[in-house]
User: What shape does this take?
Amino acid sequence: MEMSGFKIMVYSALVGILLTSCSAVINTIPVPNGVNNTLNIPAKKEKLTETELQVWSHMDLQTDSIPGMSILKAYQFLEGKKGVSVIVAIADSGIDVEHEDLTGVIWVNPLEIAGNNKDDDKNGYVDDVHGWNFLGNKAGVMVRADQLELTRIVKQGMDQFGSTKASEISDLDKAAFETYVKLKEKHSKSLNAHTLKIEDLENTSKRIAQILQNFKEVKASLGKVELTVENLKSARPESILLAMKIADVVNMLTNGLSEVEVLDYKKQIIKEKTANEASKAYDLDFNARASLGDSLYNIADAFYGNNNVIGAKDFESHGTHVAGIVAASRDNGKGVNGVANHVKIMAIRVVPDGDEHDKDVALGIRYAVDNGAKVINTSFGKAYSPNKKWVYDAIIYAAKKEVLIVNAAGNDGKDIDVEETFPNDSSDLIHEIADNVLTVGAMSLHYDEQLPATFSNYGKINVDVFAPGVGIYASYPNDAYESISGTSMAAPSVSGVAALVRSYYPMLSASQVKHILMNSGMKINFDVIKPGTEAERVPFSELSVSGRVVNAYNALKMADRIVNGKK
Assistant: This one.
């Protein structure tokens, strides 16, 4: 049966009104409080296989005896359901958008023509095909290293006060001067610690080199291709020196370190030492921004940077790893499966080797919001934020546009209800500025007192939920894959679950999605070792607002119940 043009218009308008009304109603439905869904099931005690270790965060405690986020179970629940595409912005270091497991999930700006050196979509950013790099300039120069925010603040204090004595400071500047003196002392101590760390790494490197030389000489002296504890203990060395070298090798092997593993450790130490030596974190005279040409303390000066969202593949692995956790192509026979399907990754490069700038973070959030992101992952943090209001304003802007921000709690093993870490969503550590930020702590694969990662920050007020963040296997630059730990890994695990919910239940608000993830998580009712301590035990419920760990299956069921009214 055909409809007249007039009837079509009326019908379309009516449908639009009904859908809008329905959406508005759904957006106001309160998220149910979480039920007591504690599982008193012991996790596997035996050593996990390599395959299990690579996917543990996706597994299910009830089915697999491994306390992951029940991802496979979630996809079973989604069978027969249709999802919509969701843009997830990764505000981070560079992302290898050419990675074999990411190329199929990278966001492409539909309004931008690649490589024509024009701002086709008139958003102020030229050729922003996959996102934007706020750490570069129009000539292609890229910022990789930068100072810590502490260093920047101390430098500003030095420029302001110079060699001025306390007795010469006016009453108006007294508070600022006292802060400067205190932070200058802290900077000096941190610099000394940094120097000592480099020396320790150098000594460790020399020691490893000696161990490797011992392996080589012992094999040559004994004529053995393979060295074992057994054949070394039966050896009859010709000299005391050789006996000492054999004892050294036996000690390594007894502690489970083969020659190959010692060699790998040497490579790690050299890499870490090189990175620390190249660091500009404490360099008071370094100016990373000079090449960018922006006015650093003018938030209105927004259109700087370039479209090189990859950065430097050989130095910036963090963003690539985070992106893979969220949305590495599923079931393509390569590498890993990301948490979420129907996702497009938008790359926002704002994190250098050093502390990010508040301006870059604020503008990065706004860019993501304005270009269609529904979830923004912020896996970074710092101790000081002189222009935090810019970031708060950006968060509020995102909230108004129904964009969820998933934020890493930090890796200092501290209570962030007491010690600030940035970015955050509270100017006083008590009251939220908006209800669209979800701060995530890191958990291990141990379903016992060791459940929270030893390094994870926590907070009954300022950490919302925990998620897998230890030994998370995901994409690494140049088509590689690595296991990395941190709240930086826990946050994208949750961003992936949030993207799933937003894909299959797009009518839910950012606030609803946040509280679904919190309230549907697995409740933990036992005591755990407080992060940052060796043995202090506290109820897990004291470490976050929810006292729960994110569970994708439970989250989707709760979302479905809200949207479809199912019990």
User: Anything to note?
Assistant: Residues 149-278 form one domain. The longest strand covers residues 86-92. The chain has a mean pLDDT of 93. The first helix runs from residue 5 to 28.
